[in-house]
Write a structure and sequence with these properties.
It comes from Clostridium tagluense. The chain is mainly α. Helices cover about 60% and strands about 5% of the residues. The protein has a domain of about 120 residues. It contains 7 helices and 4 strands; from the N terminus they run H-H-H-H-E-H-H-E-E-E-H.
C-alpha cells in the first residue's frame, strides 16, 4: 500500500508541487500509520510469520477509511467519486477472478520467490482466499500476476490503489494551491 503514496509524491514533484507541506498536516498521518502497519505485515510475511494475515482485509478496509479524513478536510469530493469508481472496478475484477476460480484468487509469484517473500509452502500455511496459480487457472489475466517482489497484485488491486494515488495527489495539489500548512 506504499506504492500509491510514493507515486503520488513523485508525480506531484514532477508536476512542480511542493510535497513538504503534506508532512505538516495532521490529516495525512492516519494514512501513514496504516502504511506503516502494512510494512510491518510485509516484514512479518518475509519472516514466515503469518499470525496477522487473517486480519489484512480489516486493515485494508480501515486504511481506505483513513482517506475520508483527507476527503472531508480538503473537500476532495470529485476526486473521491473518481477514486471510488476505481475501487468498484477493481473489486469487480477481483470478484470475477475469484468467482471463475471456485472462490479462490490464484497467485503467480515469480520475483517474490527470488526475494523470499513467497515460498512454495506459503499457500498451505496461510489457508486464506489465495492459492498458487496453475495451468487450470481461469481468467489468469485478472488474477494476482503482477509480482513486485514484496507482493503479487492483480489488475483489480492496481485499480484499488489508484484511489489512494488520486486522493494523496489531489491533497498535495490543494495544499499547494491554498497554502494550507496546518
Amino acid at each position: 500500500m506504499m506504492e500509491p503514496m510514493l507515486l503520488a509524491l513523485f508525480f506531484a514533484k514532477i508536476k512542480g508541487y511542493k510535497v513538504r507541506p503534506l508532512f505538516k498536516v495532521w490529516a495525512i498521518y492516519p494514512v501513514f500509520i496504516f502504511i506503516l502497519i502494512y510494512l510491518i505485515l510485509e516484514v512479518m510475511i518475509f519472516n514466515n510469520n503469518y499470525t496477522f494475515i487473517k486480519y489484512t482485509s480489516i486493515f485494508h478496509y480501515l486504511y481506505l477509511l483513513t482517506f475520508l479524513i483527507l476527503i472531508i478536510k480538503y473537500k476532495l469530493n470529485i476526486s473521491a467519486i473518481i477514486g471510488s469508481i476505481f475501487i468498484i472496478i477493481g473489486s469487480a475484477l477481483n470478484n470475477i477472478a475469484i468467482a471463475a476460480n471456485n472462490g479462490k484468487m490464484p497467485v503467480f509469484p515469480t520475483l517474490s520467490y527470488l526475494t523470499g517473500y513467497a515460498k512454495p509452502d506459503s499457500f498451505m500455511k496461510v489457508k486464506d482466499i489465495h492459492i498458487l496459480g496453475s495451468s487450470v487457472t481461469k481468467l489468469k489475466f485478472l488474477t494476482d500476476i503482477i509480482d513486485v517482489g514484496y507482493c503479487v497484485m492483480s489488475i483489480g488491486d492496481i485499480c484499488i490503489r489508484v484511489f489512494s494515488f488520486i486522493i494523496i495527489f489531489n491533497t498535495i495539489k490543494v495544499i499547494n494551491k491554498t497554502k494550507i500548512i496546518g
